[in-house]
Design brief:
The chain is an alpha/beta fold. It contains 7 helices and 5 strands, in the order αββααβαβαβαα. The longest helix has 15 residues.
């Protein structure tokens, strides 16, 4: 089965973050079949604990008036911080590349009417597994351990 083009764009963002010395998590925001925002985890690069991929993506999209009809793609299941942003802005659909490595907050999003789809993508999982094996302390910091 061919990879979803929007997930592929999120993976490109994750690889960009990795190439910058950061954590390989990427995200894109889609509206009317077009990417309107892209982002990747920049916690390391900006020394900013709030610079998660989904937050970076929403910042890049800017003020769009309303998020009805938007879809968020992320290479990893959004954490509670990012799940809160999804709920706060009324994004009603989220595609996650994978959730076995990090379960995130799908129940929270679903309890607020968000459709959450776990794509269980092998490339997303491999990217994270490699990163965690090489950078366990940085990963633990990222997830608050």
């Amino acid at each position: 089965m061919p990879q979803d083009p929007f997930l592929k764009a999120a993976i490109e963002e994750a690889r960009k973050g990795l190439s910058e010395g950061g954590i390989p998590i990427g995200s894109v925001l889609v509206k009317d079949g077009k990417i309107i925002g892209r982002g990747h985890n920049r916690r390391v690069q900006q020394s900013d604990p709030m610079a998660h991929a989904e937050i970076d993506c929403l910042r890049a999209a800017g003020r769009i008036g309303g998020y009805g009809g938007t879809v968020l793609y992320s290479t990893l299941m959004p954490c509670y911080l990012c799940s809160g942003a999804v709920v706060q802005f009324g994004i009603k659909k989220v595609f996650a590349g994978e959730s076995k490595i990090f379960p995130g907050g799908p129940e929270f999003m679903r309890s607020h009417g968000v459709e959450v789809i776990d794509l269980d993508d092998a490339e997303c999982a491999l990217l994270m597994r490699r990163f965690i094996a090489e950078n366990p302390r940085l990963w633990d910091e990222d997830i608050g351990r």
